[in-house]
Amino acid sequence: MSAHDSPQAIRLEDSILDVLMRAGAGTLSAPEIAHAISPDGDWHGLLMPIRRAAVALAQAGRLVIYRKGKPADPDDFRGVYRLGLPRQD
User: Over 50: is that where the pLDDT of 29 sits?
Assistant: First the structure.
């Protein structure tokens, strides 16, 4: 079992996907997702775990990481990014 397969990582991945599904066709930033997951808690502490989970989900084809409005390589992106569900068209 890798660190990405831990129950906490799986719950976080499910939470990220749930927030994105509720957002519809748009994209959300990591802080927006963190705040949606933990609105009254320490959502700042979720930013790095969300990034790690987003990379794993993008590698599995379950979400897309966007940088400057374009899909980014999940293994090689920096800076500000947004997350969205894969398009079905």
Answer: yes
